Every structure is written in C-alpha cells, then in structure tokens.
Amino acid sequence: MLAIIDYNMGNLASVKNAFAKIGAEAKIVQNPDEVASFDKIILPGVGAFGDAMEHLEKTGMDEAIKAFAKSGKPLLGICLGMQLLLESSEEFGSHKGLGLIPGKVVHFDKEKFPKPLKVPHMGWNELFVKQKTPLLENLPEAFYLYFVHSYHAQCDEKYIMGETLYGYTFPSAIYNENIYGFQPHPEKSHKNGLQILKNFMDM
Fold first, then answer.
1. Which of 61, 100, 157, 184 pairs with 165 at a CA distance of 20 to 30 A?
2. Residue 106 in this model has a pLDDT that exceeds 90
3. CATH assignment of 2-202, given 3.40.50.880, 3.40.50.150, 3.40.190.10, 1.25.40.10?
C-alpha cells in the first residue's frame, strides 16, 4: 500500500490521480503513527522549504519519515518533497532538511547563466540519465519532464540519477539507496512521468 504524505503543502490530488491512472491505490496520510504500516511513501509538495520543515517537525512527521527511510522501504520525494530529503536549504534563510540524501538546496545562480533566463525554471525540459536505477527502467537516456522551481539540489555526483540543463547543469533526480527524489513533477509529465510512478510501484 502506498502513502502520500500530507503536510499542508499542496499538490496531493494530482499525485493521487496520477497513481490512479496506472491502477495504483494511494492513501493520503496526515498521522505520523500510520506511516510505518505502508510499503512505500511519496513526499510531494509545492511551497517554501522552511514552512514545510516546520510543519513536519511540529507534527512529528519528520521522525516518522526518517524511521521509514531506515526500514529500507522505497521513498520518493517530488519537487519540494525532493528538496526536503537533503540536508539544508538556503531558501528565505538557512533551514535544516531531513538529511536523508547528503547535499543542499540552492537558488539558481543567474550569474552563471550564459544568457538571460527566467527564474523560476518553468516548463518542459530534458532529464539526462547519469545512473540507471529501478526508477528509470523502460525510459531512454534522455527524456522530457515538467519543471516548476527556483531552487535546485547540489550534491555529490554519486547521488545523481539525472541532470538537467537550464543555464547550467544541475541535479534533477537524486537517490541514496532506497530514497529517491525528482525535482520535476512526474504526475504532470504524461507518459514519461507515469512510467516513473509505475517503476516506483513495481519496486
């Protein structure tokens, strides 16, 4: 059974609907005491990193997620949910993350862009596979997904599943053993995104 973690940061319905399209039942979960009983969990999210961590800590959901990660069962973070898996973020100050994947969240550095580009990075862009993992089965070496974000991950290459070019190359898909994260939105990315979600269910 799959749990979608509800921590007041939106995007839950579209994630649940995407899983329904591939025939997978998902339950939206607010109670941290329920988390351990599931086989897999999704940490979605749209919003500010600091607000998200504050809510997770206030409810005890942060410790429930960490305990689930230690169990070895699959965990997938999407967009803000992916960023929360890292150790820290510089969004609106300095904030501590869940620390499940070594690395940090930084703002796009416009000074590194070879030409002016809008931030947030919004729309379809390519993910280039760096390391094949079970989540990338039956997908090509490069494929399009849908992005909406102003901050991105920064981590060692051994944790990078995929990269994307927007001004410069940044990690757009990361992992650490049973913990996975995508900066783009699989639930909004049609066929390619649904394949990622199907791969997650098949793990």
1. 100
2. yes
3. 3.40.50.880
